[in-house]
Structure prediction request, 342 residues.
Amino acid sequence: MKVRIGDRLIGEGEPCFIIAEAGSNHNGSLEQAKKMIDVATEAKADAVKFQIYQAENLYSKYTPEFSYLKGQNVYELIKNIETPREWLKELARYCKGKNIDFLASAFDFDAVDILDKHVPAFKIASFEITDLELLKYAAEKGKPMIISTGMANLGEIEDAVNAIKSVGNEDIILLHCNSLYPTPVEVVNLKVIETMRTAFKVPAGFSDHTLGIHIPIAAVAMGTCVIEKHFTLDRTLPGPDHSFAIEPDELKEMVNGIRDVEKARGSGIKEKSDLESEEMYIKARRSIHARVDIPKGSKITRDMLIIKRPGYGIKPKFIDIIVGREAKKDIKEDEWITWDAI
Prediction:
């Protein structure tokens, strides 16, 4: 199955759809948010994505602190890193001018309504996968649904897929995800991407939280059709998502690496490529040569022969056929032997 987002088809056999995840790394600055769009565009990502939530609709004020965010009140932290909803029209306009898709994760009904005017698809974050009402509400808009699946089991993913399909929306992309920031490589489990693709018959991708760029590139080598990766202008900036994000040069390197891997995957047919020269094919392969001078009329024995390069002579697999035959002409030591010489 393939899903269309804007003018792009996503699925098996199509180029990987690369989402540069800006998230909340704008640090409350519209200028910084636009700079992040510039960086994503320069890196040749397909889309840049933000996150649209409001603290009062997301977390209770009494939520205990997370262990990886020690000393920070969760409600206050979220309040401080919200993406202002009045930015959305301007961010979408700016992305259109840069010819990059604008995406944003919707965390409530109001965000869905606002984003519906500006995005080609809806993204739902991992922790919202069990909010079936939110999933249905977004799916009813009729746009493709990209669902992250961090910490979800197959049953919970099935519930989400069925909820989306129940309102007539079949355009679903599932993203494998690990809800660890950063994610240790030993728990990534990239094979789950194929499990989800097989189980739910939908395109499957990877929302990555590992350090560096090698794991998402490896995921593409395994057939992943979407990559989402957090990026930042500077990892030393304050905020919860900067430290594990990649910087502009790394984003560009990741995109280039993914495109190289796509080219390298090839057709699966084992054959000489058009770019591999005939000269190399002949000169660097082996054939049967004379180990010693072989006078005309001599009966050829195995110890008269040697297999070496180049490959202008008889192929090595025929050496047993050569042994016992008679030389039709003088064959010089180190000369390759051709069929007309025996």
Observations:
- The two ends are 59 Å apart (CA to CA).
